[in-house]
Amino acid sequence: MRVRLCFTKGPGVRFISHLDLLRTFERALRRAALPLALTQGYHPRPKLTFASALALGATSEAEYLDVELAAPVPLGEIVRRLNSVLPADIRVSAAGEVPAAAPPLMAIVDTALYELRPLRPLDEGQWERLGSVLAGLLREKSLLVERTTKSGTKQVNLRPLILQAEVSGDKIAMLVRSGSRGNVRPEELLALLGQEPTGWQVHRVGLFIAQDDRLRSPMEEAGVVVDGS
Amino acid sequence: MQTELYTQVLPAVSRPARYLGNEYNSIRKDWAKVPLKMALAFPDVYDVGMGHLGLKILYHIVNRRGDALAERVFAPWTDMEEQLTQRGLPLFSLESHRPLRDFHLIGFTLQYELSYSNILNMLHLAGIPPLARDRDEGHPIIIAGGPCAYNPEPLADFIDLFAIGDGEYLIGELIDLALGLLRGERLPREEFLLEAARRIQGVYVPAFYDVDYHPDGRVARITPNREGVPPRVRKQVVEDLDSAPYPDAFVVPYIDAIHDRATLEVFRGCTRGCRFCQAGMVYRPIREREASTLLRQGEELIKSTGYEELALSSLSTGDYTCIEDLAADLMGRFRDQGIALSLPSLRVDSFKGELAEEIRKMRKTSLTFAPEAGTQRLRNVINKNITEEDLLRGVEAAFAAGWDSVKLYFMLGLPTETEEDVLGIIDLANKVLDVARRQRQGPRVKISISVSSFVPKSHTPFQWEPQATMDLLEERQRLLTQGIRTRRIQLSWHDVKTSFLEGVFARGDRRLGRALARAVELGCRFDGWSEHFSFPKWSQAFMECGLDPAFYANRRRDYEEVLPWSHIDAGVTKGFLMREHRRALKGEPTGDCRVGDCPGCGVCNRLGVANRIAGER
Questions:
Q1: Which residues does B contribute to its contact with A (CB < 8 Å)?
Q2: d(CA B415, CA A143)
Q3: In chain B, which residue's Cα lies nearest the Cα of A21?
Q4: pLDDT digits (tens, 9 = 90+) for B515-559
């Protein structure tokens, strides 16, 4: 049984890395005494796949992971058991069953919605200026940023990867490409806006699959969905 | 503070999850409802300290009480120290993020001499005067325990109270006493220390003892300066580990910490009698837990933590009476869940084919053997009663069972060591490689040799011996490097300067306190980390204080000398240690009292305890 979980990552765990989160789920799944399917070999491990790594420091209200169980368990039971053994700031909000042959999460999730809030409040004038700088950026055809990887430095044009971005109220909302086929990091946009990325709280509102001008939730792939709330 | 921590400090440091304090199974209590507050402090970084079993045991014991709470604190990594200093923030506990100075008691664990600078630095960062005599009623009582407390003297200026011996009941006695004396939030310092020193076995308050010195720097006498304080402080011993408290849950770190797994302590103490081993002397007698207790504890821990690994821990796990049954039972119980069993500190002669196969069924990376010395003569000197045949048989069994690599531990600079003994290490490694190659074809066969420098420790038969000089140790390391002619054998060794400093503090006296304080002022901390260790700073500190470190490390003591730790009673008698020392020099081995004659170490008679063997009750 392949189960898709949607979960939140709250402020108390925003400083744990993706690898830490993976370990945390492996152990929580064991504490929950769910019948985990294990990999073969000397290092048997539960079969977990995440949709997308969240940057250290960011919070999220909708992250996704698939886990394989060796025997069927009612979805409500899975959510209830996991939430009773997860650290307080991680909550499973929904669970659904996906076909065993469904493509992996990271191959289909390609869009992310973020909200960025300044740690120190900005006044009206500052917000206005930020809004016009952002509007100016979006009029550009090309927004080149440098990325350093193990193999060296390369230039990436962010502009086509930014689907929407706007100042709204006390935050910046940005809908961007996210995943293996193109990715925008919130701190890259902040840097383009002349902001110090560490001065902002990054919150991921959702991860989506873009399809025919529509954004679908990864949970739509799952047949039966149980809400954990 | 909380807001600043989350918005300013944590984004600026490496591995910020070290400082969160909200890990699964961590315990946060309401400060308004709990009268006594204790901080458990580990003087190294979180990733290292979280692996320490003693900390988990004490955390459990204090927090299961309704009238006390325990929170953790570790040495902040250098980037965090920078943040605290820049922002004027005090060092804080993990669970409630409160300043350390708000606690009544702060208990440090002393695992390693090279962590001493971190203790002073942590006190400094907490805004607590590092010198005990500068502290007053408004400051916490600073407690220290653990193996290094058996020679507490180098820390005598800084620690208010040392807890000597097993801590399971001692910590409760200290808390009970503190609760009885607590006036509102205030704990009367002098009264608490005096009552503890008078009434609780294992309590040593250094301020209540005067030390006089000979003109040449040797200790002349150590005398109590308060009435009713014992002239010799005897360690506390837990007789029965089955009824002793043991955590049913471990705090599960988010980040990758060392020994991040469920651990069972199968027994405490060791009666093998290796003459270099302080743990083997001071943790006597041997006390095994019943297999039924261990099975229950293992189930509880796996259930509460979700760990993927269960480790059997002790000084020599292969010596556990029912080790094969226990290992088989545990593996049978957890195999289906993919939980691995790991058996650290296996001794070569307890390693048998069937057990090897059982372990092999679960995952295991490399296997360790510790012959410690390269020749039979030297192994007799140190009483490591393993023969070459034992070792080769163990290695053969391991490779036959499917291992590709083994690790061999040796020491350099052991008493009476000659070049022949050093060359014997290479000889032995080559024989091990031959055996391995006969069992396993292919390129992956690997022998790793880890060579440490011998550091004579207090309360051992070698406490009178000089430590080999740094020059000699380096010469012997070169001899080893030159003698190894195959890439299948990989050699690693310890920095001799680090071992030298360890040797100074392992057998130092109170006067070292000044050098320690000066070294910390000069910026010494994390001395166990090669990237932070600065020998020139330490040399400068010793020089400025007019102390010769070689006096402590490289000098031979005679039996009549008053050793700085002679007022600490670890159970074994001086007569026994002298006898063992003499036998060592003659190369005469001494048997294990579990299976043979009583060598008369004095522990059982004097402390009214006995070896406890599983299944014999």
A1: 6-7, 10-12, 16-17, 20, 22-24, 252, 254-256, 302-308, 337-338, 340, 362-364
A2: 70
A3: B254
A4: 999 999 999 999 999 999 999 999 999 999 999 999 999 999 999
CATH of the domain at A133: 3.30.70
Do A76 and A224 touch, CB atoms closer than 8 A?
Answer: no
Q: Measured on CA atoms in the order A182, A185, A186, A189, is the torsion positive or negative? A: negative
Phi/psi for B287 (5° steps) reads -130, 105
Percentage of residues in chain B having pLDDT higher than 90: 83
B444 confidence band (pLDDT: 50, 70, 90):
confident
pLDDT at position B363 is 44
Average pLDDT over residues B293-312: 96
Supply the DSSP symbol for B398: H
Nearest CB to A30; choose among B7, B256, B337? B337
Nearest chain B residue (CA) to A24? B254
Per-residue model confidence (pLDDT) at position B75: 98
**Mean pLDDT score across all residues of chain B:** 93
Residue B259 corresponds to which amino acid?
H
Question: Is B182 part of any domain?
Answer: yes
Count of domains forming chain B: 1
Alpha-carbon torsion, ordered A30, A33, A37, A42, to 10 deg: 50
Rg of chain A (C-alpha set): 19
Are residue A128 and residue A97 in the same domain, yes or no?
no
3-state SS of B303-363?
Answer: HHHCCCEEEEECCCHHHCCCHHHHHHHHHHHHHHHCCEEECCCCCHHHCCHHHHHHHHHCC
How far apart are the C-alpha atoms of B475 and B496, rounded to whole Å?
Answer: 11
For A20, the closest of B10, B17, B308 (CB atoms) is: B17
| Min Cα separation A211/chain B (Å) | 36
What CATH number has the domain bearing residue B123?
A: 3.40.50.280
Rounded to 5 degrees, φ, ψ at B411 are -125, 145
Q: How far apart are CA B273 and CA A51, in angstroms?
A: 56
DSSP annotation of B110 reads -
A56 touches A17 (CB < 8 A) = yes
Q: How many CA atoms lie within 13 Å of B74's alpha carbon, on the beta-carbon side?
A: 23
What is the span of the domain harbouring residue A153?
Answer: 111-215
For residue B338, what is the nearest residue in chain A, using CA coordinates? A44
Residue in chain A closest to B304 (alpha carbons) equals A31
Tokens of A207: 């991860």
Cα–Cα distances in angstroms (integers) from residue A14 to residues A29, A202, B94, in the given order:
20, 10, 16
Going along B456-611, which residue ranges are E strands? 489-493, 568-569
* ipTM at complex level: 0.92
Residue B16 lies in domain: 2-229
The token duo for A66 is 């698939």
Q: Can you tell me which residue has the tokens 């790793």?
A: B448
Number of structural domains, chain A? Answer: 2
What is the C-alpha to C-alpha distance for residues B145 and B131, in angstroms, rounded to an integer? 18
CATH code of the domain in which A81 resides: 3.30.70.580
Q: How many helices (H) and strands (E) does chain A have?
A: 5, 12
User: What helix, strand, coil percent values describe chain B, rounded to 5?
Assistant: 40, 15, 45
**Dihedral over alpha carbons B492, B493, B495, B498 (to 10 degrees):** 120
Chain A CB contacts of B12 under 8 Å are 198
- Inspect the interface and report whether the beta carbons of A16 and B256 lie closer than 8 Å: no
Q: How far is B338 from chain A (nearest CA, A)?
A: 5
CB-nearest partner of A15 from B20, B304, B363: B20
Strand partners for A65: A5, A50
User: What Cα–Cα distance (Å) separates residue A190 from each residue in A64, A196, A207, B454?
Assistant: 25, 7, 20, 56
- Give the nearest partner residue to B306 out of A16, A31, A42, using CB atoms: A31
